[in-house]
Design goal:
Blueprint: H1 4-12, H2 16-32, H3 41-51, H4 56-71
Helix pairs in contact: 2-3, 2-4, 3-4
Length: about 70
């Protein structure tokens, strides 16, 4: 039987890919030393690196290189 409670539970349930991404992002946060706000531009940039298959360490290195180019 489908009802509003079932629908709400489905919408709130995280899937395996979400959990893997949040775990990956948590590792990035530990490497950079601060919390990354979900929905921020920073999170979006790191999400792109995740989709490209970079490790957390590679993603942090890439972000630092990009920021260095901007400030140079």
């Amino acid at each position: 039987m489908f009802n509003m409670a079932t629908m709400a539970a489905e919408e709130c349930r995280e899937d395996k890919a979400d959990r893997a991404y949040y775990s990956w992002l948590s590792k990035v946060e530990k490497l950079i030393g601060h919390f990354i706000e979900l929905g921020s531009q920073e999170e979006s940039d790191f999400g792109d690196f995740h989709r490209e298959g970079l490790t957390p360490a590679e993603a942090v290195t890439e972000m630092k290189a990009q920021l260095a180019q901007i400030t140079a």
